[in-house]
Amino acid sequence: MRKPKPERANLAFGLLSEREPDAFEVLYTDFTQLVYGGGKGWFLPILDHRTRMVIGYAISFSPDVRTALQA
């Protein structure tokens, strides 16, 4: 598992502590592993920070940048 980069975490914290971002101004993703009877897959949603809406997603057998860009 990759360790978080403190400088990026502090940057995001600074941005979010100054003001509440508008809808669709701050987006983030999550790589969620789904285990099922035949193996495993990955669910990659794109989330809006303000509205908490899933605005896009992709499903794949591997967690990679290409799949994230499809979301």
SSE string: HEEEEH
N→C terminal distance: 22 Å
Low-pLDDT segments: none
Number of individual domains: 1
**Anisotropy-based shape:** globular
Class from secondary-structure proportions: alpha+beta
Integer average pLDDT: 84
Helix content: 25-40%
Q: Please give the number of β-strands.
A: 4
Q: Sheet bearing the most strands, described?
A: 4 strands, antiparallel
Any idea what the radius of gyration is? Answer: 14 Å
Strand content: 35-45%
Structure annotation, total helices: 2
InterPro entries: RNaseH-like_sf
Organism: Hydrogenibacillus schlegelii (Bacillus schlegelii)
Protein name: Mobile element protein
Please provide a written account of the structure.
It is a single chain. By secondary structure, the chain is of the alpha+beta class. The protein has one domain (21-70). The chain is 27% helix and 35% strand. The chain contains two helices and four strands, in the order αββββα. Strands 1, 2, 3 and 4 form a four-stranded antiparallel β-sheet that branches. It is globular, with a radius of gyration of 14 Å. The two termini are 22 Å apart. The model has no long low-confidence stretch (mean pLDDT 84). InterPro entries: RNaseH-like_sf. This is Mobile element protein.
Would you summarize the structure shown here?
By secondary structure, the chain is of the alpha+beta class. It is built from 2 helices and 4 strands.
Descriptors for this entry?
71 residues, Mobile element protein, 27% helix, 35% strand
Describe the protein's topology.
Blueprint: H1 6-18, E1 27-29, E2 32-36, E3 39-48, E4 54-60, H2 65-70
Antiparallel strand pairs: 1-3, 2-3, 3-4
